[in-house]
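Progress against Task 2.4 (sequence-to-structure conversion) is shown through the following example record, which the project officer requested during the mid-term review.
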Amino acid sequence: MSAPIVRRSPEHTADVVATFAVTPRMRRITVRADSMRGVEIRPAQDVELLLRDASGRRVKRRYTIRAARPDTGELDLDVLLHGGGPGAAWGAGVRPGEQVQFQGPRGKLQVRPADWHLLIGDESALPAIASISEALTGRAPALALIEVEDEGDELAVRGHVSWVHRRGAEPGTAELLCAALADRALPDGAGQAYLLGETRAMVALRAVVEDRGIAHDAVFVKGYWNRGRPDRLAGRSGSPELSPGSRRP
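Structure tokens generated for the chain above:
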């Protein structure tokens, strides 16, 4: 009996062509790979970078593709500079002219038809929320609740955005976003929700969103990082993903 075929995402080698600070804590890294020419990217898809930690051990970190230009094979990756792990170290120190390997793109999120859309997340989800909001332009209205440390983390995001500031409170809990959602009036009709951020916080928020009238099958949850593992706020590795209709055990 032949062994099963193991299908892996293709591996790419990319040149870093530009970097700049989007906010004091987020840096945009533009990479270019000939193998990405002509590849269309869906909103919130990501790539998995193949990096090295301080000991030289190979590690993987996942980053949402903020924008893509298939004609040139360029991808913009917004890297949150948080913690001292390999993802944050790469994002802070990489320079144009260097190379990086990655796998992907991948991602299960689909922008589905709805009367309106609700996007909730923390700063790790900013690239995904921004790309989804842009994909919704000209469609049903989009509302976003985004938790960040303070005004310095805010970015331009299309739609009706409410910023939730921690101001020193511990990141990765559901309390602030739950309170903001309780105070937010939601439109009539059938909504679609996208919950993106710290894994347990987003799972907790799912129940709150459903209590506000959004159907279970219309809620997409994706964990980008986990409390207690600081570098996961800068890059995601092995993040769980819950598609509409799925339930955690």
